[in-house]
Amino acid sequence: MKSCQKMAGRSRLDADRNDPKRTGQLRRARATYEKLLEINPNFVIALNNLAYLYSEQFNLLDKAFEAARKARDLAPNDPSSSDTLGWILFKRGDYSWAVSLLQASAERMSEQPEVLFHLGMTYYMMNEEVRARNAFTRALAANKEFPGKEEARKRAGASDSGLYQSGN
Question: How many CA atoms does the CB half-sphere of 103 hold within 13 Å?
């Protein structure tokens, strides 16, 4: 498995984890979403946001997967739910399922660079160089900040001979 999977968006998230104020906010957000889901277990937005928090901030991929899967099952046409589930699948190494969800999300959310970054990273892990570079380039063209922007710059500009070397 390529090391970029662990690097994607890492420096920003590490900085967030070291900020006590930010950590408290994330814990409160998690508790709020969990309480909302006690009241309404089918609240798609809460399921999706909680799945993202579990995945990106708390490294609870199994819980993230369950919440994202439920959100996607309840709202199969929602591109945000598809993106969240796709990114969690990427992190779990299930690239073939991830890419189908992320392609659909990227088609409907083509102006969202984070979605395009997720798609690019999945293509990267599947050794689809041209598609990966295209997704990274499109994400960067949005000219917005997003988690993984530096990784996208690196991957979009990598030479043809070195893009898929482990550890790049």
Answer: 9
